Hints:
- This protein has one domain (20-242, 256-261).
- The protein is mainly α.
- The termini are far apart.
- The longest helix is centred in the first third of the chain and has 39 residues, at 7-45.
- The chain has 10 helices and no strands.
- Helix 1 (7-45) packs antiparallel against helix 2, helix 5 (130-156) runs antiparallel to helix 6 and helix 6 runs antiparallel to helix 9.
- 78% of the residues lie in helices and 0% in strands.
- The mean pLDDT is 95.
- The structure holds protoporphyrin IX containing FE.
- Protoporphyrin IX containing FE binds next to helix 2, helix 4 and helix 5.
- Residues 35, 54-58, 73, 77, 80-81, 114-115, 118-119, 121-122, 127-128, 137-138, 140-141, 144, 174, 177 line the site of protoporphyrin IX containing FE.
- It comes from Subsaximicrobium wynnwilliamsii.
Amino acid sequence: MRLSQSSIPERVLGISTTLLFVVIFLGQFIFALYILGLYGISGLAGDFERWNTAAPHGYDKNDITGNIFFGMHMALAAVITIGGPLQLIKGLRNRFRKLHRISGRIYITCAFLISLAGFYLVWVKGSVGGLVGSIFISFNGTLIFICAFYALKKALNKQFSEHQKWAIRLFLVMSGVWFFRVFLMLWLTIFKGPVGFDPIAFQGPALVFLYMLSYLCPILLAEYYFRTVKKSNINKVVGAVLLLIITVGVSIGSFAATMGLWLPNIK
Length: 267
Ligand code: HEM
């Protein structure tokens, strides 16, 4: 089949978009294995002290409510990290429409619940990163609320093209904490150490930059994609190159996070 002139940029854009999502899906699958391996297995075995390996405020024997919220946050994290990518795969969506509707409602409910539990952890139990870290993760939680609300509303109103856009925005903000770990590890790989932040207090300008890169940039990029990329061939090529550069960065960061953070804790 002969390709028309305009179909080449279209195809290049399609391939680079798919490539980025494949890398994100694979990385999130490993993150989900880590959550199940570290928090799931030790939780089932009653070895709650192990929760504090990577989350300093995870388990406290004197704080039953806090432990319940943390356990709930981890269970939901596993569900959404596995379920989110599955919701976005077009083939599955088209083939199993009813299942997509049911799992979509579960995903959106989990989005609200994980953020509510997250707010409790940040503002009641305490978290790493000080006030600035708490404000940024809460900003991410607020974006999750907004995107989950509109993804559901547009689906119920049968505005499916709008629903699809809100579902992608929701997936991207739900992936914020994953992006943060990936970009942090990319940063540490590029600069060969904690440049621009204090690794003990976990505070500093580099982290502010990484928070914005993780929680805000993905939805801004999606906005650029929705509004501009498809308008001309040159935009498609520029969009494709941008996505390929991001894919390289996300791949390196994902690999570093897998080797440095996740694999050592999967037991
Ligand atoms: C929606 C996707 C989210 C996922 C998949 C997720 C996943 C996780 C995981 C795996 C941990 C344990 C730390 C680690 O092992 O890396 C954690 C801890 C935590 N999360 Fe989330 N989270 C999400 C959203 C949120 C939100 C929206 C908030 C706040 C509003 C939040 C607040 C926290 C806090 C405070 C901790 C404890 C950190 C500490 O021990 O200092 N999370 N989360």
